[in-house]
Amino acid sequence: MATACEPIATALTLGLMAALTLHPDRLLPTDPAVRSIARRLYEAVRDLPIVSPHGHVDPRILRDDTPFADPTSLFLQPDHYVTRLLHAGGVPLQQLGVGEEPLPENRAREAWRLLCAHWDLFRGTPVRYWFDSELVDIFGVTERPCAENADALYDLIAGQLRQPSHRPRALLRRFGIDFLATTDDPGDDLTAHAALRDDPAVDTTVAPTFRPDRYLEIGRPGWPEQVKALGGDVGDYAGYLAALEARRRYFIAHGAVSADHGHADAGTEPIERHEAERIYRAARAGTVSPAEAAAFRRHMTFEMARMSCDDGLVMTMHPGIHRNHHPATANQFGPDSGHDIPTAVEFTHALQPLLARFGTHPGFHLVLFTVDADVYNREIAPLAGFYPCVYAGAPWWFLDNPSEIRHYQAAVTEIAGFSRLSGFIDDTRAFCSIPARHDMSRRLDAGFLADLVAAHRLDEDEALDALTGLVDDQPRKVFKL
Amino acid sequence: MATACEPIATALTLGLMAALTLHPDRLLPTDPAVRSIARRLYEAVRDLPIVSPHGHVDPRILRDDTPFADPTSLFLQPDHYVTRLLHAGGVPLQQLGVGEEPLPENRAREAWRLLCAHWDLFRGTPVRYWFDSELVDIFGVTERPCAENADALYDLIAGQLRQPSHRPRALLRRFGIDFLATTDDPGDDLTAHAALRDDPAVDTTVAPTFRPDRYLEIGRPGWPEQVKALGGDVGDYAGYLAALEARRRYFIAHGAVSADHGHADAGTEPIERHEAERIYRAARAGTVSPAEAAAFRRHMTFEMARMSCDDGLVMTMHPGIHRNHHPATANQFGPDSGHDIPTAVEFTHALQPLLARFGTHPGFHLVLFTVDADVYNREIAPLAGFYPCVYAGAPWWFLDNPSEIRHYQAAVTEIAGFSRLSGFIDDTRAFCSIPARHDMSRRLDAGFLADLVAAHRLDEDEALDALTGLVDDQPRKVFKL
Amino acid sequence: MATACEPIATALTLGLMAALTLHPDRLLPTDPAVRSIARRLYEAVRDLPIVSPHGHVDPRILRDDTPFADPTSLFLQPDHYVTRLLHAGGVPLQQLGVGEEPLPENRAREAWRLLCAHWDLFRGTPVRYWFDSELVDIFGVTERPCAENADALYDLIAGQLRQPSHRPRALLRRFGIDFLATTDDPGDDLTAHAALRDDPAVDTTVAPTFRPDRYLEIGRPGWPEQVKALGGDVGDYAGYLAALEARRRYFIAHGAVSADHGHADAGTEPIERHEAERIYRAARAGTVSPAEAAAFRRHMTFEMARMSCDDGLVMTMHPGIHRNHHPATANQFGPDSGHDIPTAVEFTHALQPLLARFGTHPGFHLVLFTVDADVYNREIAPLAGFYPCVYAGAPWWFLDNPSEIRHYQAAVTEIAGFSRLSGFIDDTRAFCSIPARHDMSRRLDAGFLADLVAAHRLDEDEALDALTGLVDDQPRKVFKL
């Protein structure tokens, strides 16, 4: 490590490079009186274990504990937050290895150089904030990345990734992650989860999440074949329902606590049984119309709530994304390559059928996420402020940045109070960013509560209790951990 | 009183309870330089009389001056702001006596205990802020409510409610309410208002408000019967119009200054006379379609503007609420039981027919309220910044909290200036919260203006003038008091 | 000048008038630590030349260099920002000379008196902020306008307007405008631009902008006649396309860098060639339906992007305005008389066809402006954060005020970084407000960046680099200057 670090330290000493440091008060309010309250609050929760009830880490990484190949495959290739901004800045995705396996070293190094050379593109974004935290806290980087130190940084990080200290399980321990949910296909055999559960060396609970989207969208190309992955007899609608229920039970047996749903809208209008059967047959025959498929999907979202009332899986909804907005990129690089774009979303009317039927069902939990910030105070908080089942999911995806988190805090809390929040959800596939994301959230929550204390709207003991709740109690309660 | 207070003071002294106090600078900006400006501004208006041109206090309470029965029937049962958050927190509405008359003491006390035990649910909400103000300012409470002191607080408040000092009229005087509008059915005989007007002991002007919603929504079940309450010959459309006009005159004769309209949308498209007549006949026959009923209601909103131009009643609009979202609760507890949920609302296109015809009519006033905060800067402020009749109504219902009030202040003022604001509207049925709500508004207005002064965008003498305007002149001008 | 100034100075000295001054720290953050960072940042860019790539100054003013007639024709008559607020405040537009040529002195003076007497209507608005800057910086006014000093101010300003120092070209030099784009009809001969380009005494580049709206909206009354202004053979669709392409080339030859599009929505769905031909023929015959005209306009927006890919003109979009909301005012005073009202706008779906085809075309630039602030974080920033062609246009029209600019800064930057912003666009027809508007933007950008530095999210050297980029590099890069 010393060898790898040396050239960097020298360059910094020579004044060639800007220093990279993490200020202890970063993200806290700037007013001195408020900051000192925020500091006290933050200190009380900064080292609490991480509870991550929804995310996209691949469990096989943890099961296999294979060292990460290099900085590029760790930080760059799989993270569309990063690659999309580089793409917007003129860097072709193929140069970044998007959609590929770990690259040969020359290509990996070249991609890393592109990242460092375009470091200014990330100014002001949370990606930059998380990067800074990860580079300093996990890899001991002391220089701000740039074209000149790209290779030295690559060597420094690559060197550490080969050490036992930086293998996936070691990082998992170091990050202090108490609970980690992954996102999984209903047809997955969950052997990775079983192996992790049965391994006494793993302290973290790694739970699967039931994500049935593609099985419910029966008009998608290939659905008649894909649906068979559910197992069971999916030849008719009754068998399809039974297969879904069976897979949910299988997931629950493997530790799942929630089922996640991400469709174009939040519709939940049920249809008559015979109509559902008819549309199902049409889908099997490949003759279903888009309108029929949408109606069926909304009906099935209603059915998923019914199943959640029966089997206890927490229902989470992530609607309102236009997927694969740029078809040429989707064709070349696959899904999740950075061109999913939010759309307006509506919950009040869309959820009414579901909530009219299940809204007060004991034990039913429904967590609503949005990429359309307008609905926080217009729809989500009012719903969460009446229905015992509804929780306001933490800011998601494009909204997981300081200004939108502050908006969410105020918009939801002032209408529904703290008890209706989900607690922070990182929803990330960038494993190393998990601690930075949770730390960012704790700082922002501390700051928001400090503002309330400074405005004499809350006593500090209450703020402390609320903060501990947000960080620890609330996600455990909402996700039934 | 001393007896009732004693155990509380003791508990507090013993450190068992948290103190409840009101900081003199609460809600003012935290930056010391800005706060000192805000303090000066606030001091200048804090004791001005309250003008409340729109709300839901029952005038019979003031006419009869009967003591409030107990803390539960005063604070809890009728206030869906409170009961809905308790319901979301898992407390069944029946335990809170929602929809019932004052409860027997054991049930009232039990409901009050539930409120105190769930005090943390209200953290960060304006409900909590108003509660704190009311408990301290009106009842001298010195402890933060909790399960342990619930009974003592109940006794303390119940004891005071039996005193002459805490009867409705005494509080009305103490609150310094100069003008108080209620909300009334067009068929109401307004005898309570007449009695209050004729009573020399009542200094406050208590005015009715004409609220014809259910008479204009001709497709609602029961409408053919209900419409008869208008009096006159409502057998045909001409008679119906005449009856509405007559009831407006009756309201005006009893002091009404405004007519309030709260429908699903803000539509104002007129229809042809013969079409209105045809739909009206269909409604009488019970054969009107939902689309016809909606068209008729939009047409009648246009007609209401015409009548306002003729008779001078200020027109206020409160659109965009999905009423009775949870039918089972509506069936059991009635309307206004906490599950009305906002929806997106549109004004620009919807109001165009009305404004094209009446937008520059001398003396016509149209105040637009919204629960969809998106329209403040997109639609309401631009409309109010051109049409002499349009005023931007203060944040309403779910939006009457500090963060949304700040959003409104900036969003509307920067586009349309201060002169296009309605001034604060409490719109409350919680009588004791009126002073706290107006005080909150004055503090936030002072803070907003202090920000402008501190940013050197406004001189302090102008800020003071603007603040006095908002608190006193503007509501009197907008509502023609 | 001395004579004109004297009564003012005397009145002020006598304490009859309030002083008008510009505080050096105006609009900077109020927290002392943050303010000092902001000051340093602002100082570094305050005197940089102005780059104005989109606006509405009439180039003939600069070509002819005729002195401005009087304060009223300079500040009041042509500026609907000002006249609309006076109109809302009860001042009839005819008294302000809206839609008229410069007024006779008695009417001009009377209009000016109305402005000064209603100075309080502008409190809190950016109009007031710009006015203050212009009055002090350009005309040396030292008193806040009011009814009492209106005539003295009129004389003071009118006197200066007669001086060489205050003729249009002198002001242009004094303002430090490096690049100024106007907005022009495709049929314009651009002789004013040619004259300015060929005049060695003019240092500023004054470029036309291609604004084809009315040629693309083929259902508008008069279109069959108007379209002939394009020249060429517009008898069929092919000739129409060729004529548009030719006019674009003509504009480019006269220095144009962009084409601007302002329609009711952002639709870009192309239609089949034969269908376009058919609809075009119907429009020529005056038989086109509104739906066909809308489909054709969306198709032509797609075609405009294709042309931009071919000829390099930057494409800017300004959708979502309901024009001429009050027909009676439009009929009497013409367009742009203050009653254009924003509507909700949608980009994600609407732009998908265009971006699917041209989104990664090398050198294509598409700048998206909005009056619907909801789409900043929901649609514009996500699009700009992936597509290399998409830039987030600075806050436009009703949104060009401090609070919305701050919202834009945070909403867009946190999702897409600084590099995807257009830089400030004044978009004004109020010539004298250009420096004040750019100065406001620089102050707000400095403040926003100072906040990031104070929160330890950015180092100060980076903030300085980002600020210089926003003020100078970014608009030059985005508009290919």
Describe this structure in words.
Chains A, B, C: Keywords: Isomerase. Chains A, B, C: InterPro entries: Metal_Hydrolase, Uronate_isomerase. 3 copies of one chain form a homotrimer. Chain A contains 21 helices and 9 strands. In chain A, helix 10 links the parallel strand 2 (177-181) and strand 3. Chain A is 50% helix and 6% strand. Mean pLDDT of chain A is 96; it is low at 1-7. The two termini of chain A are 40 Å apart. Chain A has a 4-stranded parallel β-sheet, with helices on one face. A 3-stranded parallel β-sheet of chain A has the order 1-2-3. In chain A, strands 6-7 form a two-stranded antiparallel ribbon. Chain A has helices spanning 2-13, 32-45, 59-64, 71-76, 80-88, 105-117, 126-139, 150-161, 168-175, 191-198, 213-216, 223-226, 237-253, 273-284, 290-311, 327-333, 352-358, 375-384, 402-416, 434-454, 460-478; strands at residues 50-52, 177-181, 205-207, 258-261, 314-317, 321-322, 341-342, 366-368, 390-392. With 481 residues, chain A is α/β, with parallel strands linked by helices. Chain A is globular and about 75 Å long. Chain A folds into 2 domains: 2-23 and 67-166, uronate isomerase, domain 2, chain A, CATH 1.10.2020.10; 172-478, TIM Barrel, CATH 3.20.20. The longest helix of chain A is centred in the middle third of the chain and has 22 residues, at 290-311. Chains in contact: A-B, A-C, B-C.
